[in-house]
Fold these 2 entries.
Entry 1:
Amino acid sequence: MDYAQENRIVLNIYLLRMETGKNKYQSRRDFVRTAGKILVASPLLVLPVLLVKKTNVKGYVWQIDPYKCTQCGQCKTNCVLTPSASKCTHAFQMCGYCDLCGGFLRQGAKTISTAAENQLCPTGAIKRRFIEEPYFEYTIDEKLCDGCAKCVKGCGDFGNGSLYMQIRHDICVNCNECSIARTCPSNAVIRVPADKPYIRKT
Amino acid sequence: MIFAQERQQQQRFPRPEFESGYQTPTHQLLNQRGPMWEYADVAVLIAALSLTSWFAIKKRSRKGILWMSVFSLAYFGFYRQGCICSVGSVQNISLALFNNNYSVPLSAILFFIIPLIFALLYGRVFCAGVCPLGAIQELTGFRPVRIHKSVEAVLASIPFIYLGLSVLFAATQSQFIICRYDPFVGIFRLNAPFTMIIFGVLLLVAGIFVNRPYCRYLCPYGALQNIFSRFSGKHLTITPAECTNCRLCEECCPYDAILPSDDLKKTEPKEITRKRFILYLVLIPIMTIAGAILLYNLSPALSAVNSNVRLAREIRLEKEKGVPALSKSAAAFKESGKTEEQLFSEESVILGRFRKGTPWVGMFLGLSLGAGLFSMTIRKTRTEYKPDQGKCFSCGKCFEYCPIESKISK
């Protein structure tokens, strides 16, 4: 019996079985399919049971813990957005309102003034306003701030540490994994509950 | 306690007492759109999946699926800016499964599960018209070029490796590599590092010819969809009625996802088939074990993905061989006051977790490779042309090639 002949017989048997509706191959295949269906469907049923205790309805956002931040300046460069969603924030109630401000003035500045060459901020985002002798108020112009954290470092080194970095949630696109968090050397960028999105310094 | 000390240290100047009646302002920090909006996204996801399934199976309308792609690209892509997506949710799930300090957002679970349920019911309708990553490639694949079967088979194994590794890295709290190497999210946001844009644009340019390159050769969620879709209850069919074996659709699929009708003349002797069948059946457990051993031995190398492990190695190198640790993380570590012992014990904990996880990943990879090879040895008797349910994206490009289709619609 040559192969062509054999094949013809196989085909005939196959067609015959198709007609009678009882096909050995077919029913075996159906069994495998059903078994496979159950096998892949079961994780979908088990998963919600496993995760039911670990589910959070409100979700998370990313935020910088100002007490862990080392002002390395990578927030500016590593955010997926340009300019970065992380910006300088001012805790006014901590501020000393100094004339000689470590966050506003460049180190070694000849005079204490708002002249560009004296400012520490590369984009001129800190505004200085006279309140009363000898106090000055410093406010951040967020449109100009690019998150380089130079002022935060200056304020922490020479002042009260009232300037600190925070991720702005009106700008942040809330990546599944924050690319600043991935590279933050002090692991200061953490997930916080979405209903309390800021870690304020007080 | 530690925070309080730090705070005291930094308070160098006393708070001024103003005489002019100046009130200290508070820095206003704005919130996102409400977190509950994510549930609107889930509703859109379900609606889009249902509509696409209807277009693919009931209506048999390529145009409908194409418009669904346009909608998904606009909504999930450009409006919602690509986060959160089902592809990335794999990592949230595995991070939550293996870590107690992370609780996964409900929306991430839903984004993970719902498309898989639809795959089990109607095939890969998620890939067809709902996934924004798929949609951008679907709409830019102008000139399909077919790839040789062997090249295709090798490249198609990458998603499984990608899936295994991304689950491993997420479960060990190391990295979300799927999100890091997401090629199109930068295009959706119109704002990204240049490397991301270059990768995305290169894929899109390649995708003009080799359609849907990310879906076919990279997407880890696609690997899951592939497995689930094989067992789908209903699936898109090439012909609306009975196949006449006219072979007109044979060349039309750009993804090489059409299984041809059997050519009965070409069958080999039964002996050879049976021998091959047994050989590859035996190979499955061997490959599974080999995969486990291989990956287990790779765990020290793989653990370098974790930034703490990298830092610990850098510090150890400095300590033992005198190579100065100059990276920013090393500088931050020295500033933080954490001891080296703490860091090294952290490293060994992470390495231990990798050692626990890698054999399972290896087993998964070995098993899927073995099963893939084995399935090629099964003798099939097919009397019709039908889609390969694992590979078929349910895009509906084959509809118009079927002569029965046009007869019916006329």
Entry 2:
Amino acid sequence: MLGNLMAVDWGFVFEKLILIAVVVTVSLVVAMYETWAERKVAAVIQDRRGPNRAGPFGLFQPLADGLKLFMKEEIIPNSSNKLLFVMGPGLAMLTAMMTSAVIPWGSKIVLFGRTIPLQIADINIGILYIFGVVSMGVYGIMIGGWASNNKFSLLAAIRGASQIISYELAMGLSIIALLMLTGSLSLKTIIEQQQDHIYYVFFQPLGFLIFLICAFAECNRTPFDLSEAENELNFGYHQEYSSMKLGFYLFAEYINMFVSSAVMATLFFGGYDIPFVNDVSFGLHHGQNLLALLQTVSLLAKIACFVFFFMWVRWTIPRFRYDQLMDLGWKKLIPLSLVNMVVTGFLVLLRQNHWHF
Amino acid sequence: MQALTNRVQVVERKPLSFWEKLYIPAIAKGMFITFSHIFKNKPTINYPEKTRPFSPVFRGLHVLNRDEEGRERCTACGLCAVACPAEAITMEAAERLPGEEGLYREEKYAAKYEINMLRCIFCGLCEEACPKDAIYLSETFAPANYTRKGFIYGKEELLIPDPKTQPEEFAKAKGLTK
Amino acid sequence: MGITQILFWSLSVLALFSAIMVVVSRNPVHSVLWLIMVFFAISGHYILLNAQFLAIVNLIVYAGAIMVLFLFVIMLMNLNADTEPQKNKWLKIAGVISGGALLLVFVAALKNVDAKAHVAQVARGDIGLIHNLGIALFHDYVVPFEISSVLFLSAMVGAVVIGKKE
């Protein structure tokens, strides 16, 4: 048994652990500053100034908010199911963090003679893994809402869960059309196909639009934030939560936003590919590490654009009514994505049979 | 139905056309509007760093005035208290003792002078009623406080600094410098 | 004992323990959550067998969708230990007998199976990978696959018919 343990490539394990730590830290910091950015974006859209007291441009505001959440009193309602009540936010956070494991953050770096790919796990079912984890994300909401033993929370939890399940369907169908073009489920392969080629968004504009709308719904963002509708359900599933448990729910939402932006950038906008630059020749001329750094920056820039779009939409479009939401999901997006799928399949078939057009 | 005025606008409630049903043009329009607001001027003023100038007729916090030699002008005649519609002013008079001529201008002065800023409506009638030009309303306002007691301003808070010993503070309270 | 075996044993223990907890739990919501744990453990087994596609689809479909609907119903019905209806004594006896009979059938069927000859080929068995699985499904088993998809289609049509307003 000891021999087996010795046979494990410890350098590999070590580099993966470091990578995981870095990715987790980065997502947490990004989520922190997303809260700041959200308030700033809301402010500038509404002709206000936003947080500007704590530090320059209010940049320390998230730290102050985090400190406030940690210092607040931890309340667990008497009539709640204590174990599940504590488990809910943890689960929401866990599933939010897990998605980032399959996203390639850059091609690879060379350190101390080792080639380290900037991706935690390049599994050949990358997209399906993301879907699996996202479908697990429902439980954080559902368990939290039910364990609060509050009717508003329960209603919100059920709303949120049914919304996520409904939109997952259209999301999956819109992805199938993309997968017909890529022929692979691995995110790394999908990016490599897009490198120095036309991004998939130009082949799949409708698919991208459907995916985008579904991503909004999956993240519980406005206009689909029915599970935390404050004017009809008080605060939704996290009504009974206080202190950092509430913070976890809010944080999970922002991490979800970050990760779904990363997924959209990866699938439709070339991921870490630097636009208008031939990555391979750049890497040969300027060194692999610089290339990897620039690629990561490029991906983060794409993500930032998407995150801004998320916020922009939030402060523009009002919330859907619940029947409108279900109507859009089941009667519009699913047929649309089915049509998109059939048309894409037809064209792919034509191309495979050497019909040039 | 006959319209009552010529400003009536009739709302047409016809079903949405296909283009309107898509909602996408409407959403794009809305998004464009919110985006254009990013580049608009912000009307907000960063308050403690930048203050808006008060109008010269602004009626703010009261000040008990002194004359050029630093003597209190108030004689505790009580006209301000009578004039006050909110009954915010109370005072206690005292007689000036020999040797206090440098402190009080008249023979009688206010030993205690209190204004309840929670009652005060800042109408400025006390200022108008004062025959000695002893009270006037400055261009500041009462800062927040944690207790109700903190809003009852006594003589320490109301009296203007002595022009002889603290000329700068006096000028500032008078509004002579900006 | 390699890492694979350690994982296998711990996953098996987890799966069996969770399965028992599903039956034993008084609170139906806890039962559902334990059932989700069972699905996770089984997905872990699939990954050990190098069947990643099956593992993740198991999670998406069962743990992600079907169990959520289960949870829906149970949460809305507000079942708990106090409102649990008293079960008929004969029903219990019938349950024990039928369960025992099923166990007997399983034992009889699996007693003579030579397990050694059918060990899953972990090292070389790449049929579970999505590429090979797709080829197998759409070449060798295309007719049964399409027929099952018609079954799903009919279920969808049925749902639409039920959901349609009169």
